[in-house]
Design brief:
about 400 residues; alpha/beta; Rossmann fold; 2 domains; ten-stranded mixed sheet; about 40% helix
């Protein structure tokens, strides 16, 4: 692949290869081997956070068994690019861009969340670009998977206010610059918030949004209809989950820089902070290896480590908490919306209910999945891809002879 910058629709784009040097990898292994381990926590494993036995075993494999060169080759099978969007923000955007294997693909931007990377979305690429090969009805998609600002290979602009609206504005500029006048958006976690803000601010461009997490909640006031019993039960369960699981969010939305020093310096600290979320939020039944392969976890961790972006990624919590571009009481996002509600979304036993989502979104499709959790693109890529395709094909009237793709 020739790394030569070109100008596409008023911004510069360059092919990109994922490359991590041997020096970085050697330093990583040395730090792992020099880890100062704490005492094990009393009580049940995982009850006070990441289990010591599990983490020691994972890091031993990271240092002496994990084959990063093989993972790097697998990542580079996909077409990676960076774009200098030529706007005031200044920072480049890394993204994967894969076109439909046949015909004119429908353009779709997929956005990951925290604690994850663009690699979470890669299992969806073959399923969406060549759906017929996997028994998924309908024509293929042109898939664009950007890295959120401050994650992996997308630098975060050196400013505050890099919130849902900021990222949605950049994704809109990216998609239009790639030649897509109208497109769909899907996402999870922060990516679901970005997709929602794309629909909120660019309904003329966004055909519809498909979300696998209810990242945004309706803003209620005295004029709102009272919550139903089902809605109230969900809100209570969500608040109970927040009380015991939201410690990470409290620190990341107030003092991300403070915790960042340790996570950026220690592979054990980084792994402990992130892996505990993957275990809790995935449909793992407490056995993380059952839901997510270790090589997948360690690919994510290696990208964070090598790019030193854990601190900048956590600033999403700070910027979105203190953003001025908030939803207003009674506001609705009126582009068509589809939801894939996975069995073990991290609000356990309190999955979102459609009536609550409909207070904010124009819900056209609501699918409750029999399995899978917060990281659905990794855990259950076929279920998620099928639902994305069904939403954009059936609910929006797409057929093999029709596409909104440009460029």
């Amino acid at each position: 692949m020739s790394i030569v910058a070109e100008t596409w629709h008023n911004f510069a784009i360059s092919p990109f290869l994922v490359t991590i040097s041997d020096e970085v990898l050697d330093d990583l292994r040395s730090r792992i081997r020099a880890t100062r381990w704490p005492d094990p926590a009393p009580g049940e494993p995982w009850s006070q956070g990441t289990d010591l036995v599990f983490l020691r075993d994972l890091l031993a494999y990271w240092a002496d068994g994990f084959d990063w060169p093989a993972q790097q080759r697998a990542l580079n099978v996909f077409a990676h690019f960076t774009a200098d969007l030529g706007d005031a923000a200044g920072a480049t955007v890394h993204f994967v861009h894969e076109r439909a294997r046949s015909g004119a693909g429908f353009p779709l931007v997929l956005t990951h969340g925290w604690p994850s990377t663009f690699a979470e979305m890669l299992p969806l690429v073959p399923l969406l670009t060549d759906p017929g090969a996997y028994g998924i009805p309908g024509p293929g998609f042109d898939v664009v998977i950007p890295s959120l600002p401050g994650y992996g290979f997308s630098p975060r602009p050196a400013r505050t206010g890099v919130d849902y609206r900021f990222v949605a504005d950049r994704w809109h500029r990216l998609m239009r610059g790639l030649g897509y006048e109208r497109f769909g958006a899907t996402g999870t976690d922060f990516g679901a918030g970005v997709a929602a803000y794309l629909g909120r601010h660019y309904p003329e461009s966004v055909v519809g949004i498909h979300l696998s997490t209810l990242e945004l909640s309706p803003v209620l006031d005295e004029r709102s209809h009272p919550l139903s019993d089902e809605e109230q039960a969900f809100v209570v369960q969500r608040d109970q989950w927040d009380a015991v699981e939201r410690g990470y969010s409290a620190i990341q939305s107030t003092k991300p820089q403070t915790v960042g020093y340790g996570l950026n310096d220690s592979p054990a600290g980084l792994a402990a902070w992130l892996v505990e979320k993957w275990r809790s939020w995935s449909d793992s039944g407490g056995e993380l290896d059952r839901a997510v392969p270790r090589d997948t976890l360690l690919t994510m961790l290696t990208v964070y480590w090598a790019t030193q972006t854990i601190t900048s990624s956590m600033r999403d919590y700070y910027d979105n908490r203190w953003s001025s571009d908030r939803l207003r009481p009674g506001e609705r996002i009126d582009v068509p919306a589809g939801f894939a509600v996975f069995h073990h979304e991290y609000v356990q036993e309190g999955k979102p209910v459609r009536a609550y989502a409909e207070r904010l979104f124009d819900v056209r499709r609501w699918t409750e999945m029999p399995r899978g959790g917060h990281f659905a693109a990794v855990e259950e890529p076929s279920l998620l891809a099928r639902d994305i395709a069904a939403f954009f094909n059936s609910e929006l009237g797409r057929s093999s002879g029709h596409t909104e793709a440009g460029g």
